[in-house]
Each structure stands twice: as C-alpha cells, then as structure tokens.
Prior knowledge:
The structure holds 2 protein chains of 2 kinds. Chain A has helices at 2-5, 39-49, 59-63, 77-83, and strands spanning 35-36, 97-105, 114-127, 130-140, 146-155. Chain A is of the alpha+beta class. By secondary structure, chain B is an alpha+beta fold. Chain B contains 2 helices and 6 strands, in the order E-E-H-H-E-E-E-E. In chain B, strands 1, 2, 3, 4, 5 and 6 form a 6-stranded antiparallel sheet that branches. At the A-B interface, helix 2, helix 4 and strand 2 of A face helix 1, helix 2 and strand 3 of B. Strand 2 (97-105) of chain A pairs antiparallel with strand 3 (83-91) of chain B.
Amino acid sequence: MAQAEAFETDFWKHANLRKVWDDIVPGVPRKTIPYTLTKAAIELYCKSVGEDHPIYFDEAYARTTRYGGLIAPPSIHILLMFSCTPADDWMRSPGTVNAGQSWSYNIPARPDDVITLQARALDKFIKRERLFVVHDNVFFNQHGDVICSGRGWTIRPE
Amino acid sequence: MTTTFENLGEGDSIDGPKFEVSRESIRLFCDGSLDYNPLHLDDEYMKGSFGKTNFGGIIMHGMNNFGLISRMITDWAYPAGAIHRRLETRWVKPVKPGDTIQPTGIVKSKQVTANSRWVLIDVMVKNQAGEKVATGEAMVEFPN
C-alpha cells in the first residue's frame, strides 16, 4: 500500500508526544498538513467500505453527472482526518474510542484536490468517569471552498 | 418506481449493503482510512480494559459503520438526483470479526425550505443477531 508506506502506521511511536486529556485546550487549533488526495487513495478507501458506484471510478460516466467528473464519496473525510494531521496529533493516541460523529457536506472532494484542514478541540468534559473531547473540523479544497465540516465525540485514553 | 421527493412517504425504508466483518476487512479499513489505532489491530493490547470497558478482542472502526451508512445514502440518492448533505451517528455496540452488519434507513420526514427540499432519514446498523450497533440521522437534499 503506497499510501500506508509514506504514513507512520505505528501509533505507539509518537505516543509520548501527544497531548493527554488534561493538556487539550478547547479552542486551540490543531496542527494540520495539506494533503493531495489521489485517485488511488480514493479507490483504496472505496474498496475498504465496498463503495462501487461508477461516479468514483469511471471518468466517462462521471462526466455525464451533475459533478462533471470523478468525485470522492462524502465519507472520504474519514481518511482526510488522518492524512491532514501529523503523527503527534492526539487523535492518534492508542485507545482513543470514537463515540459518534456528525458531518455536513457542501461540495465533493475530487482526485488531485489539495486538501487542508482547520481543526480544534471544541469542548471537553467528564461523563460517567470517562474523559470526553469534542473535536471540530472543516476541510477545504485548493480553491478555499468548504468540502465538509463535522464534529466528533471521542473518549480519551487515561 | 423511481424515487422522487413527491412520492417519498414517512416510513419508507432503505436497505443498505450487508457487510461481512473480518480481521482482513478491518485491516483494509486501516489502510483505506489511515486509522491504525491498536484497538483495531493489536490482540494483546485489547486484552486490557479501557476504563470500565473490556472489548475482549479487536473491534471494527466505528467509522466503518459511518462509511457503510453513507454508502447506503449515496447509492439511494444519486439515481434520484438527490444529494447527501448530512450524517450524524452514534455507536452503541462494538462490532467484531465474524459479525455481519447491515445499515438500513427509514424516512422520517420531508421539509420544503425557501430554496430547496429536504428528507430526514433515521438510520441504523444492525448485526447478525438483530442488535443495533449504530444509530443516527441523515439529511438528503432534493434540489428543485
């Protein structure tokens, strides 16, 4: 997997550099990195959830649709969350449990888009002795257009 | 019958794809999403507890549910000329290798606003035992 080879897949490696719940300050921007979304990355993500609609794979078909060309599935933000953040981002802390997410979709991401992310913790709280952080994220394309925006609720490792 | 905003009714159902969960499917989702959290990979790590919770083995990514629900919504919306605009989900039960899960949707309501038309859909994912593993709500736009 070419993409995975360029990505640190050992989430323990930078664990000591990552913020724990106590250190996370709601409102402070997270470090993010631009990411070029390739057709291969879209196809691999599609394969992992069984997406087989031709609008993601067939250029000739995609040109006939309202989108005028290939697009990525809306849920591509699942990949973008990790591809647009550095290895010491707290979202990668081993034991981070995802409790739920909500996302709004504006325009689709497309192959070769250069994606940027603006992200922050928005809130943190304790519920039934569990340490929660709410994270807030907006993805943009290279034209500055919003692709999608969303929030997630995670339970932080202790 | 082609789905249109006009002929949709409260209670109409949408069947999503069945998905067989295996160690291989979870590993593929790691590669597709770049989420290599050991919750999804490391059997030794998963022998431990997380606060009050012990999962008893590796679990599927919650966002794999999200991706399947989103796939169901877009596969339903595209032929109708509609646009998947929002998805909110909550995970209620872990999914493990050997499970077979399936998302479904039920039309909850329709609404016309100043410039467009919207459908709200209750969504859920159930496992092979009929247990809910994820619930949520989707919003689809049917442009005028």
